Amino acid sequence: MTQLADLSASDPRSLVSLRTISKNFGAVSALTEVDLDIFPGEIVALVGDNGAGKSTLVKILAGVLQPSSGAIAFDGAPVTLSNPSAALRLGIATVFQDLALCENLDVVANIFLGRELSPLQLDEVAMEVRAWTLLGELSARIPSVREPVAALSGGQRQTVAIARSLLMNPRVILLDEPTAALGVAQTAEVLNMIERVRDRGLGVVIISHNMEVVRAVADRIVVLRLGRNNGVFPPDASNHDLVSAITGADDNAVSRRARSVAQPRSLNPGRH
Amino acid sequence: MSPDSGHHADSPALLDRGDTRLKDRSGIAGALKAFADRVQSGDLGSLPVVIGLAIIWTVFQTLNPVFLSPRNLVNLLFDCSTVGVISLGIVCVLMVGEIDLSVGSVSGLSSAILGVLWVRLGWPPELAILAALAAGCLIGCLYALLFNRLGMPSFVSTLAGLLGFLGLQLYILGPKGSINLPYESPLVTFGQLLVMPAPVSYALAAVPGALTLVRRLRTARRRRASGLSSRALGGLLLEAGLITVVLEGMAYYLNFARGVPWMFGLFVGLVMAMNYALRSTQWGRSMTAVGGNREAARRAGIDVRLIYASAFALCSTLAAAGGLLSAARLASSNLQAGTVDVNLNAIAAAVIGGTSLFGGRGSAYSALLGIIVIQSIASGLTLLDLSSSLRYMITGGVLAIAVVVDSLARRSRVSHGRA
């Protein structure tokens, strides 16, 4: 990764700034010169179609993938996120789309994985109490924290993954589709939680395909399209503008469907 | 969520008993029911091996009444300890989902190093032992290097090691071949004769039960103070009492013959230490995590390479230690030390004992239980004066059954959500 990219253009208030980040997988460039700023106390929603590069960008921020070029600054200082623990040390916590839980370990072990209390004589009691507290804050419906994660439903696993990200009082939290497997009540709880951590001054990045979720919590909506920045929108931007930015065309499947729904059961649904 | 103590275990005020879907499993009956649930869902633990051992012992005892005599059991324990220590290392690599096929060769190499340095070159035995252990550790580091840096599957690198280190063993021993170790030396005495005096054996047999009780009581007190459910005193006393009675009974029985071998004491000590390390330290937790889901462990910030390296290094070091013990047991460093037999027995013992070949599940005690099964079969067949051809076939059959049980249990765990 080159440090030559221009970091001077970044906003001094930003907690994390990415400048001209590119990531190539062989001949495919998943990200091309993407810029992103994360401010403390702000929720940024990262939206885009499938394959737009959202998850790749999050993985770069989490230290799971390394960018092919571009620069990252944390608190204004250039940093290299060469592995996940580097990101964790800086206080960047992530809830991955695939959750990254160990199914053979129980809930407590998963929440504290890599950050166990008293490493030479694990303090299971204190860890269990803290786990219950965290899960309580998320109104989790988990019957027992001593069951292996394999026994949990998708939504319960997602809650465990979110609880784990909150454990270390991070400064930035990245959520890749955090509500995908959640029920109605728990989605609301997670959105409340996201707002609570935002109000505590954390920077939050949320990826979601669900525009309702995005509009409900985001302070700023960043659109990616085919691995490039494609506009920044306020949460009250019109649906049309957002969809156009995401799909890259005024005339797209969503707008066509909207039009055809607007003229229901017409005798001549043919397109023009 | 009041933190005051004195709640009954099923009180809804407890932090971890709030969910109405949770079945009450407190008390002795509850513990039994929970155990039955676990077994039903495929979380067999050491149940198959205990049943298997009972069957094997019954069969051999009916065929030859000498089998369960104190004398034969003392010999059995001497024999268990050498391969058992190697098997303990295998548990480590299996925990992270890898394998070491070269433990037999490494143990043979370590016994050759001991013999050459000590007897031929006249080094002090302590130094020769350290050198052999260091060589084992180095070999493990080499496997770790090949695995971590070059991405070489451990199956292949250790298969190469199996041949390579067997060759090195023969090379070191040279044309003169086997070396006899000084018969009166403390090492050989330790391997062949040294048993605990009866009072010491009774005292040591009381240790595991006492340790269990103290640890469990402390945990229960802390859990109560933190508003968590805790196990009832009766159950704790029963468990610790049962452990103590069984161990004291065994010591009493063995003391009819020579007594409990110190070498077996060392083996059990290593098993207990490993059990603690795997269950109650961050390292052990990381080992389990890496074996369960390597990528998840990496994303949790665990240094996955270091964990693999520690597993390989520990396995090879324990293999070297096992080689030293078997050299002491045989009073020689010979050309046949650590041949295929040792290799497969060590791996079979870990698997038979209940450590999964698929990684992420296992316990140090599986090495202890598994090796007792293997050695029981070997000893029983020797008593029946059966040829080694039959011995191989029967041991192979037992291993196959153990792996089938492991695979079936795994399938059942997946369907019961216990992966």
What brief labels describe this structure?
heterodimer, A: alpha/beta, Rossmann fold, 6-stranded mixed sheet, 9 helices, 33% helix, 23% strand, B: mainly alpha, ABC transporter involved in vitamin B12 uptake, BtuC, 2 domains, 2 strands, 72% helix, Xylose transport system permease protein XylH (chain B)
Question: How would you describe this protein?
Answer:
The complex is a heterodimer of chains A (272) and B (419). Chain A contains nine helices and ten strands. With 272 residues, chain A is an alpha/beta fold. Among the domains of chain A are: 16-102 and 170-237, P-loop containing nucleotide triphosphate hydrolases (Rossmann fold, 3-Layer(aba) Sandwich), CATH 3.40.50; 238-272, no CATH class. In chain A, the strands form two sheets. In chain A, strands 6-7-8-3-9-10 form a six-stranded mixed sheet, sandwiched between helices. In chain A, strands 2-1-4-5 form a four-stranded antiparallel sheet, with helices on one face. In chain A, a hairpin with a 2-residue loop joins β9 and β10 (228-233). The radius of gyration of chain A is 20 Å and the shape is globular. Chain B is mostly helical and 419 residues long. Chain B has 16 helices and two strands. Chain B folds into two domains: 47-194 and 261-410, ABC transporter involved in vitamin B12 uptake, BtuC; 195-260. At the A-B interface, α2 and α4 of A face α8, α11 and α12 of B. Chain B: Its main location: membrane. Chain B: One of its GO terms (molecular function) is transmembrane transporter activity. Chain B: Pfam families: BPD_transp_2 (PF02653). Chain B: Keywords: Cell inner membrane, Cell membrane, Membrane, Sugar transport, Transmembrane, Transmembrane helix, Transport.
